Amino acid sequence: MEIKLRKIEDKDLALFKKWVYQDYILRWYHQPEEWINEIAGRDTEYSFLNHLIVYDQETPFAFCQYYDCFYAQEDWYTVNSAGYTFSIDYLIGNTNYLGKGYGKLIIAELIKNIREIKGAKSIIVMPEKENIPSCKALEANSFVYDNILSYYRLNL
Hints:
Helix 1 (13-20) packs antiparallel against helix 3 and helix 5 crosses helix 6 (132-140). The protein contains six helices and seven strands. It has helices at residues 13-20, 23-26, 32-40, 69-72, 102-115, 132-140; strands spanning 4-7, 49-56, 59-68, 85-92, 122-125, 144-146, 151-155. The protein has a single domain (4-155), classed as 3-Layer(aba) Sandwich (Aminopeptidase). It has 156 residues and is of the alpha+beta class.
């Protein structure tokens, strides 16, 4: 299996909207309108997010993103400086790709992209504990769950 990541474009928005409103995705991504707004603002207020479409050969089947936690400033972590701590998100929109190891591959590609950023020290991720496939995909990529902070971490 080989995948490719490409920066999201306007032509991908209809497909992304279709994916994000599927029941199995809504279970983990509760506010699809926020995701859609972030992608729409990818060249302005959300330019710190790196939105990507994932391909198998010529078939788009997933969405992923990575970002510097300093600019996102979410409530589940504390980051005081830019360029050191990053986070990732992904979803597999095409049901034909579920349960086949593609989540693990997407995470591996995101790690590669972040490792190329000078100064990057760690990646932190906070999936819901009930999202077992995502948790297993993180662990398969050497992420370790921090019981004190309640999220996964990978030191680069």
